[in-house]
Specification:
2 domains, Helix Hairpins, 6-stranded antiparallel beta barrel, 4-stranded antiparallel β-sheet, alpha+beta
Length: 381
């Protein structure tokens, strides 16, 4: 019975109700289309404005940076002077700490000086002994200049005396030989003969003495050569004393210039070898090494203004100028430079180091270590 009570709507009524819903939906679509049409000009205007802003901004940036060259392949650079002892020995004291600032001449390390003090005393003793020998040789030289001529004169006088005795002995011998045996005795003849032989021997001895005393100048020169030799010995001894004094002074290792102590690898009790690096001194003079691409160097010249930003201190704005451009790319000075003539050449844009001097903007309270990253901007007008 329930099914029979339900009244089904006529088909025409159903068609009218569905037609009304379609018209409402079509009206909504038309209204949205009109709204989109009315909003589309504004969208176009906004897009045009944004495009103009981008174009103007791009042109402004290009115009502002067209005379600038920048690179982030840059770092702080400076002189790190290696410190090494001149002499070997044990460290007895240190006068510095890590990263301390020192002035030229300040003591850094003390080496045990006792061995070098003993060496200095020994060298001074050798010098004194050589000086005494030289004084004696000089006195002997002065005496030789008198003695050798006098010795020659004495030898010549003895020769004359011996020759006179020989003449007398010859005369006596001839007289004894000419006498008859009754007028003389055999003993007298023997005496005369012996006297003659003795006189001849004396003459020979005197002649030898004269011959020995004749080279007066060579004899004097020999003594003078000893003086010259001892003079050279004194010079050697004096040089040894100076070297010993230097060695003793070098037991105190001093700073050769102003700078900050870095990479210290020495402690009290360390045995230092001569020439072994024990620390470095970073000089206060710091500059920038900027590795620009080769196509950025066309208008870059020394003296051009540089603005420098430091990655570690964004608030630090440094000013500087281009000092010089290295005459060679970085790859040219590597341990194994490329060999383009081998046939496997691949063209790579090279970078050339440019030295930039910092003129202003440094803050004494902010340390600027070597090797930290910076970004220089060079105005290449």
């Amino acid at each position: 019975m329930a099914d029979s009570d339900t009244v089904e709507a006529p088909p025409k009524a159903r068609q009218q109700s569905s037609g009304g819903g379609d018209r409402a939906e079509q009206d909504r679509d038309a209204k949205q289309a009109e709204q989109r049409k009315s909003a589309r000009p504004w969208v176009r205007v906004i897009m045009v404005i944004v495009l103009l802003v981008l174009i103007i901004g791009g042109l402004s940036y290009w115009y502002a940076t067209k005379d600038e060259e920048s690179t982030d392949d840059s770092y702080t650079d400076g002189r790190a002077v290696p410190i090494a002892p001149h002499v070997a020995g044990y460290v007895v004291s240190l006068d510095i700490n890590d990263n301390a600032f020192v002035h030229a001449g300040d003591p850094l390390v003390h080496i045990d000086p006792r061995d070098y003090e003993a060496a200095l005393e020994s060298a001074q003793g050798q010098l004194a002994a050589a000086q005494g020998q030289l004084i004696a040789a000089q006195r002997g030289f002065e005496i030789a200049k008198v003695n050798f001529p006098a010795r020659l004169e004495a030898a010549q006088a003895q020769l004359k005396d011996a020759q006179a005795n020989l003449f007398k002995a010859q005369t006596d011998n001839r007289r004894q030989q000419s006498l008859s045996r009754a007028a003389t005795t055999g003993q007298s003849v023997d005496y005369a003969t012996a006297a003659l032989r003795s006189a001849e021997a004396q003459v020979a001895s005197a002649q030898a003495a004269v011959l020995e005393a004749t080279p007066v100048k060579p004899n004097i020169g020999q003594v003078g050569a000893q003086v010259t030799q001892l003079t050279g010995t004194i010079q050697q001894a004096d040089a040894a004393v100076k070297q010993a004094q230097l060695n003793l002074g070098w037991t105190v290792v001093r700073a050769p210039q102003d700078g900050w102590v870095t990479k210290r690898n020495v402690e009290v009790g360390t045995y230092l070898q001569q020439g072994t690096q024990i620390m470095s001194l970073v000089s206060p003079q710091i500059w920038i090494t900027a590795n620009f691409k080769e196509d950025q160097l066309e208008r870059m010249r020394p003296g051009q203004h540089v603005a420098i930003s430091v990655d570690a201190y964004p608030q630090l704005k440094l000013k500087g100028h281009v000092d010089s451009v290295q005459l060679g790319s970085g790859s040219k000075f590597t341990a194994f430079p490329p060999e383009n003539a081998t046939g496997n050449f691949v063209k790579i844009v090279q970078r050339v180091p440019v030295k930039i001097i910092i003129d202003s903007g440094l803050d004494p309270s902010l340390p600027l270590p070597l090797g930290i990253s910076v970004t220089p901007t060079v105005t290449v007008q």
